[in-house]
Amino acid sequence: MRRVLELALVALLVAQGRAQEPLLGAPLLAYTRADHADVWLYDVQADTARRLRLGEGLHHVWGFSPDGCRLLASLDAGRLGGRLFSLSLDGTDVRSLVAYDELPPQAWGVWEATWSPDGQRIAFIMLREQPERGQVVVARHLAIIPSEGGAPQFYSVTGREHSPAWSPDGALLAYTSYDERPVGADPLSTAAPTLVPEAGVSPSPPVTVSEADLWLIRADGQAKTRLTNFSVGSVTMPRWSPDGALLGFVYSPTPNNDLFWMIAPQANAIPTQLSLGGVNVLDLAWLPDSTALLASARNMQGISENILWRVPLVGLADTDSAPLLPEAAGLGSADFPRWSADGRILALRSAYALALWDAESQQARFIADSLGNTPPHWSPAGFQGETGCRP
Fold first, then answer.
1. How many Å apart are CA 346 and CA 308, to the nearest integer?
2. How far apart are CA 98 and CA 143, in angstroms?
3. Of 53, 85, 108, 374, which is least packed with CB atoms within 10 Å of its CB?
4. What's the CA gap between 373 and 354, in Å, rounded?
């Protein structure tokens, strides 16, 4: 109750302060700076920014509601992530979303929240302390709540889930799930089955490594499908193509040995390998027309710096990939590429500062006072500015 009252007071003070501010237009970018002390909304056309604050603590912004009129953000409560909130663009009408009282407040948190494109659900990773083998460990379960909030419904079992990603139509949810594998003589081998010990002798616990594969589940929690089944290594960064026909991902047979792959989002689909030589992938996205992947990668084609690469879906990425941005744009050390809803403007982080690159004019500019280390989020298609959000 105290926390609710504190948020209500903050919202009241914010509303009073916002009365004289101009309304934000479209499109908008939401981001946090390096200190995570607040959330920022940037009006791209007006070149103005608005600061939103949930309270004391580390802020994380996860995106917009499908109509663009609300933000999804969390405020850290400790080492297990934060409490999840939605709030209006002026910082008022703050709603606590996850109702959970099965553990003390310090023993659970929320991470990687994402609003479904149809606006019906919010998916996230629920972190919870639980006993295992005589000690307390942190389980990470894929969870779902209605968009207005409520008790979480858990869609996963192992407690080693990460990276939920909605399909463009909101019908499917991709994620990664980790399994334990006995370690063999080298990273690419698995240990032989443990011999049965002599009577009265307890076997030594096996040395295992945790590795991830790609999974798919329907929005209602039914029809779970394992899309990949690599014998060793891990899948990370599942990314839907904008047309929903493919999932791009990174597969790493060993650490710092990243390869580009893709797969159709259906049972028994055969994954397609797009590269042979390992690189270091910082982030993965798509081109707006779904014709190629867009990767921030180091040590690719002899270039040690992380730049943005257009990774073709046909051919060999090792030789056929090409830099997306012209050198004249001045956007080195690039990562976190995110396209605007109309596919014209690319937001990215360049040397830790947010920048915008217009694909039509080929011009780039930096957003002032934006040093940070989290991906930016664009307002969705159809959002016409804050005036359309007012009753």
1. 11
2. 10
3. 53
4. 9
Assigned token pair, 44? 């791209």
Please state, in angstroms and rounded to a whole number, the distance separating the CA atoms of residues 100 and 176: 24
The radius of gyration computed from the CA coordinates of the chain, to the nearest angstrom, equals 22
| Side-chain-side CA neighbours of residue 36 (13 Å) | 15
Residue 270 neighbours by CB under 8 Å, 6+ apart: 263
DSSP string for 327-370: GGG---SEEEEEE-TTS-EEEEEETTEEEEEETTTTEEEEPTT-
Report how far residue 200's alpha carbon sits from residue 266's, in angstroms, rounded to the nearest whole number.
48
Buried b (16+ CB within 10 A) or exposed e, 170-190: bebbbbbbbeebeeeeeeeee
Q: Lay out the sheet containing 280-286: strands in order across.
A: 280-286, 292-298, 307-312, 322-323
Residue 237 to residue 354: CA distance in whole angstroms? 21
Q: Which residues in 362-389 are b (16+ Cβ under 10 Å) and which e?
A: eebeebeebebebbbbbbbeebebbeeb
- Yes or no: say if 138 and 108 are a contact pair by the CB < 8 Å rule: no
Higher pLDDT, 16 or 350: 350
Q: pTM of the predicted model, to two decimals?
A: 0.90
DSSP percent split of the chain into helix, strand, coil, nearest 5: 10, 45, 45
Nearest Cα to 280, choosing from 314, 248, 254? 254
Task: For residue 73, list its beta bridge partners.
Answer: 61, 85
User: What confidence tens digit (pLDDT) does each residue in 266-282 have?
Assistant: 999 999 999 999 999 99
pLDDT digits (tens, 9 = 90+) for 169-183: 999 999 999 998 877
Residues 92/11, Cβ–Cβ less than 8 Å: yes
CA pair distance 374, 74, nearest whole angstrom = 13
Distances (CA, A) of 230 to 211, 247, 293: 9, 16, 21
Q: Which of 160, 167, 342, 319 is nearest to 243 (CA)?
A: 167
Cα 112 from Cα 82, distance rounded (Å): 10
Question: For the chain, how long is the longest CA-to-CA vector?
Answer: 80
Look at residue 5 in the predicted model and tell me its pLDDT: 43
pLDDT at site 20: 63
Q: CA 196 to CA 232: how far, in whole Å?
A: 25
